Amino acid sequence: MHTSNSDDGDGSASCAYRILHQDRTYEDVADVTFTVGGKPGTATQPACDDTGGQEEPLGADTMTAYEVNGVPPEVAIAVGDTPANARLVAVYSHKELPPEVQKLIDGS
């Protein structure tokens, strides 16, 4: 099991943590215990333009995307270099978490 943590330690970017995978946009979900499943492929973290046009935005990062046990990849995935350091990201609908992810938070 793994607990996701939204604090990545750098604190320098003001952009939301967003991930693109299979034509869907996922956002960070903090403090969720989950188990990494299979490895569906790669995901992309798009460039963050938080400089107000002063500088060029940094390039996009590609990372490994993992399935999360009990949750369809269309709803949530885990992303990171390894399963041990992966963080949970989910597709939000009207800024609400999907019920499958809410069950992980509630421990159901």
Can you describe what's shown?
- With 108 residues, this protein is mainly beta.
- It is built from 1 helix and 8 strands; from the N terminus they run ββββββββα.
- The strands form 2 sheets. A 6-stranded antiparallel sheet has the order 2-3-8-7-6-5, with no helix packed on it. The protein has a two-stranded antiparallel ribbon with strand order 1-4.
- The longest helix has 8 residues.
- The radius of gyration is 14 Å and the shape is globular.
Distance between the termini: 15 Å
Radius of gyration over alpha carbons? 14 Å
The largest pleated sheet is described as: 6 strands, antiparallel
The residue-averaged pLDDT reads: 81
Name the poorly predicted regions: 5-13
> Within the largest sheet, what's the order of strands?
2-3-8-7-6-5
Identify the overall geometry: globular
Percentage of residues in strands: 25-35%
- Helix content percent band: under 10%
Q: Please report the total strand number as a whole number.
A: 8
Structural class: mainly beta
Question: How do the SSEs run, as a string of H and E?
Answer: EEEEEEEEH
Number of helices: 1
